[in-house]
Amino acid sequence: MAQPRLLLVEDDPALAELLKWNFERENYIVDHTADGEEALLLAREATPDLVLLDWMIEGLSGLEVCRRLRRLPDTANVPIIMLTARGEEEDRIRGLETGADDYVTKPFSPRELIARVGAVLRRVRPALSAEILEYADISMDLVAHRVKRGGDVVNLGPTEFRLLRHFMEHPGRVFSRERLLDAVWGQDSDIEVRTVDVHIRRLRKAINEGDRADIIRTVRSAGYALDADGSL
User: Fold this and answer.
1) For residue range 148-183, what is the model confidence (pLDDT) as tens digits?
2) 130-226 is classed CATH 1.10.10.10
3) What are the Cα distances from residue 23, in Å, to 27, 140, 163, 221?
4) 63, 175, 203, 208: which one has the fewest Cβ atoms less than 10 Å from its Cβ?
């Protein structure tokens, strides 16, 4: 398997060197910068498989870097884990709303971070080029336009199919209603934001039929995510 490429954006030299050494020992290619603007340039030059992004970098903030990475076509779907000393729930939600996939509060151990990165990459990599997406007991055939859960056929309308596909291509990631509107309906759509809630209800009803566990999590003040273990 090809070496995964990380973009590490961290302005603490000692921590950056420690993380770079540990990830390279685990066979990762690590591009490092302490500067937000340079991070955007590096991401354009060589698209990373995952971004480790410090919240408190000087100049362009980590949140702004995250926001801009989400706007670039090549990095719109690249997982982003934010590294920060800010542990308040409000800060965590801000990071998630900006587009971060995960949030690691300092201090942390390199082993913990390596495990988190590995888990994210295992979730997202198989979905990038597959014709069949699978998550937990759900299987989605993109060619036949068919969804099954636990082997049983699930009947979905076209919008619910697109919504579920988006979730299955980014399992575990929290999406705000606005970001779901852009991804599923398109940026030029004039549909009301609350319409997303209606289609989430329809999707839940279809895939949870027969008293199955609800696999779609509502994350307070942030949005929705496909999450089988309820860890969000």
Assistant:
1) 999 899 988 888 988 999 898 888 888 888 888 888
2) yes
3) 7, 33, 34, 33
4) 208
